[in-house]
């Protein structure tokens, strides 16, 4: 049960000045690190999945170059 007018935030006032900036930057850095780690995990999982779907390497000639060795 909540008190009338309660917002769920702490009752002390937010920090001001240099301390507030430091806290905001620290929170932003933590959030950024979490996001980058999640992205890295997703990329690793995608790379692992794609590695399982690729078959054995086969020789191919993508340039379609034909060398006629018998016309000398």
Structural class: mainly alpha
Mean pLDDT: 77
Shape summary: rod-shaped
Oligomerization status of the protein chains: single chain
Question: Considering DSSP H and I runs of 4 or more, what fraction of the residues is helical?
Answer: 40-55%
Q: What is the succession of H and E elements? A: H
Q: What is the distance, rounded to the nearest whole angstrom, between the alpha carbons of the first and last residues?
A: 96 Å
User: Count of helices?
Assistant: 1
Strand content: under 5%
Question: What is the number of strand segments?
Answer: 0
Unreliable runs: none
Describe the structure.
This protein is mostly helical. The protein has a domain at 17-51. Helix content is 50%, strand content 0%. The protein contains one helix and no strands. The protein has one helix at 18-53. The N and C termini lie far apart (96 Å). The model has no long low-confidence stretch (mean pLDDT 77).
Annotation keywords:
0% strand; single chain; rod-shaped; mainly alpha; 72 residues
What's the layout of helices and strands?
Blueprint: H1 18-53
Task: Give a quick precis of the structure.
With 72 residues, the chain is mainly alpha-helical. The protein contains 1 helix and no strands. The radius of gyration is 30 Å and the shape is rod-shaped.
């Amino acid at each position: 049960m909540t008190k009338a007018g309660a917002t769920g935030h702490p009752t002390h006032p937010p920090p001001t000045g240099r301390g507030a900036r430091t806290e905001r930057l620290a929170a932003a850095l933590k959030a950024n690190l979490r996001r980058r780690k999640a992205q890295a995990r997703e990329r690793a999982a995608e790379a692992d999945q794609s590695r399982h779907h690729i078959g054995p390497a086969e020789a191919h000639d993508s340039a379609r170059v034909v060398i006629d060795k018998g016309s000398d």
